[in-house]
Specification:
alpha+beta, Glutathione S-transferase Yfyf (Class Pi), Chain A, domain 2, 2 domains, 4 strands
Length: 208
């Protein structure tokens, strides 16, 4: 198998962290870097693997290509069910997915929008950039994160009492903002979120 990634991008990092938490880092998976800054993800060769020109992409041994972060993680969870990160029954799976989607849509997406439209280094990837839109996304972020800060005051992890894929999505989002937006939850008064971030950052998988 091959895992096509872009170094430092949050979605490939989500898959790599998921694999580390599952203890699958030693699987024979070749990591293939894709140079998105030089538009490699829009080349005919890459578009043959993923027509929507996004990373990550898992290239299976049978020649199929699986895109979308959540789908790739679902594939690995199905083939390697332990340790469980996506729910043990229908109820738990549904609630973990809810929290994971919230992390993706209400945390990662606005962060990505700010970075894509406001950071000069992302200009080659987002043409045209709309700085006013990106700025509005960044300004709304602290208020959105307060919802999750409040939840983390009464539970240790993003989806409840145990570490799940939702923590991975949220952590990779916050780290993306920390790197390119210089955002730190504690600086915004989000102390529970900062404590959660620091605990997740101490896990070996955070270095994957």
């Amino acid at each position: 198998m091959k895992l096509h990634i872009a170094p430092r991008a949050p979605n490939p990092r989500r898959v790599q962290m998921f694999l580390a938490e599952k203890g699958l880092s030693d699987l024979p998976i070749e990591t293939v870097p894709v140079a998105i800054n030089t538009q490699e993800h829009r080349s005919p060769e890459f578009l043959a693997k993923n027509p929507v020109s996004r990373v990550p992409v898992l290239e299976l041994d049978d020649g199929r290509f699986l895109g979308e972060t959540r789908a790739i993680c679902t594939w690995f969870e199905g083939h390697h069910p332990e340790p469980n990160l996506m729910g043990r029954d229908a109820d738990e799976r549904a609630f973990i997915e809810m929290h994971d989607r919230r992390a993706e849509f209400h945390v990662l997406l606005p962060i990505a929008n700010w970075i894509r439209h406001c950071h000069p280094g992302l200009a080659p990837l987002e043409q045209p950039q709309f700085p006013a839109f990106g700025q509005s996304q960044g300004e709304k972020l602290p208020a959105s994160l307060r919802v999750f800060d409040t939840a983390l005051a009464s539970q240790p992890y993003w989806a409840g009492e145990r570490f799940t894929i939702a923590d991975i999505t949220a952590f990779c989002a916050i780290e993306f903002a920390r790197g390119l937006m210089k955002f730190r939850p504690g600086d915004a008064g989000l102390l529970h979120l900062q404590d959660w971030r620091d605990r997740i950052n101490a896990r070996p998988s955070a270095k994957a």
